[in-house]
UniProtKB/TrEMBL annotation:
CDD domains: HTH_ARSR. It comes from Serpentinicella alkaliphila. One of its GO terms (molecular function) is DNA binding. This is ArsR family transcriptional regulator. It holds the Pfam family HTH_5. NCBIfam families: HTH_metalloreg (NF033788).
Amino acid sequence: MKDYAEIFKALSDEGRLKILKFISGCERCACEVQEQLDLTQPTISHHMKILTQAGIVNCEKKGRWMHYSVNKEKMLEVSEFIQSVVVCSDDTIINNFKECD
């Protein structure tokens, strides 16, 4: 559960969500993130540090630039966790309705 708390904390910032959305299709260079999202290099570094520490973004240095991509396996795991919460909630709601009858 602690891993999920760290992931959701990382996702709780609008700037990080924009970055995640931008890099979701393919690997992106930090310079592309900077240009597309109009962020400073220190801001990008700060956000990427949080996203990589949470395990939801991969980074690799190529030349003088860092390249970032979404950790699809980790995001799938998070998606499955959310789905399990939704299913559990649905079952709880159904059981509560049955108890009321």
